[in-house]
Amino acid sequence: MADLKNDKIPVHVSMIMDGNGRWAKERGKERVYGHFEGVESVRACVETAVEEGVRYLSVFAFSEENWNRPQDEVVALMGLMVKAMAAEMEKLNRNGVRFMVLGNRERLGDDLNRTIDECMDMTKDNETLTLIVFLSYSGKWDILQAARRYAADMIAHPEKREELETMGVEGFDKYLVTAGIPDPDLIIRTSGEHRISNYLLWQGAYSEYFFTDVLWPDFRKQEFRQALETYSKRDRRFGKVK
Ligand code: FPP
């Protein structure tokens, strides 16, 4: 167990998993080998989240921009996702993990969408941990699709016009793909990059950020616990004076 000050456990931790390619290159291997090892890190983080009482763990597995990577890497990554889901789902289900995929699912293939639906359906009533995989996701895309659906509601429901026009931030939250999911308390990015890379732009407005030089395939239990300890010492004020 991590040595956490005041038991300050974040409800939702999100991971920008970066550095798989470099990890593989350092070992003279193909980039996909790094992604393969990266799945082991996801597994270690899921176990740690359950042990430490984190309720939501999300991982940025594939961005809208990642579609522009070489085709063979895209195909290999999608294949890896299907394989990882098929291999892990029974165990995740037994351990009370609810599994979700969020993102632009229209761009995913039929096989992957079918596997995702099966996994989400199988685990939908689990309550120990929610594991969210952001797939074909970007923050700007999410805000745009939310704005489109908001505008469509305005047109389709003239009787709700005043309610929609005056709704606050929480009202708009419901149009994002993360509706119903608490905003991330902690966002971790590995591999020494200090960027948000079009990730949870709206939802990360008041997140704490933790950057580490560790490459994602090396980010395991000890590294996750270290991040949780750092988080527990942060003073969150949400723009107010304490
Ligand atoms: C970034 O490293 C990593 C990715 C774009 C893919 C991450 C995906 C996984 C680890 C698979 C997860 C699977 C499941 C089922 C959740 P990079 O390739 O950008 O590394 P680099 O910056 O060193 O090139």
CATH class: Alpha Beta
Strand content: 5-15%
> Quick check: average pLDDT?
95
User: What is the CATH superfamily?
Assistant: Decaprenyl diphosphate synthase-like
Distance between the termini: 29 Å
In the CATH scheme, what's the topology name?
Answer: Undecaprenyl pyrophosphate synthetase
Strand order of the largest sheet: 3-4-2-1-5-6
The succession of helices and strands, N to C, reads EHHEHEHEHHHEEH
Task: Return the CATH architecture.
Answer: 3-Layer(aba) Sandwich
Describe the model:
- With 242 residues, the protein is of the alpha/beta class.
- The protein has a single domain, classed as Decaprenyl diphosphate synthase-like (Undecaprenyl pyrophosphate synthetase).
- Helix content is 45%, strand content 15%.
- Strands 3-4-2-1-5-6 form a 6-stranded parallel sheet, with helices on both faces.
- Strand 3 (97-102), helix 4 and strand 4 form a beta-alpha-beta unit.
- The longest helix has 24 residues, at 71-94.
- The structure holds farnesyl diphosphate.
- Residues 17-22, 31, 35, 38-39, 42, 59, 61-62, 66, 80-81, 84-85, 133, 191 line the site of farnesyl diphosphate (FPP).
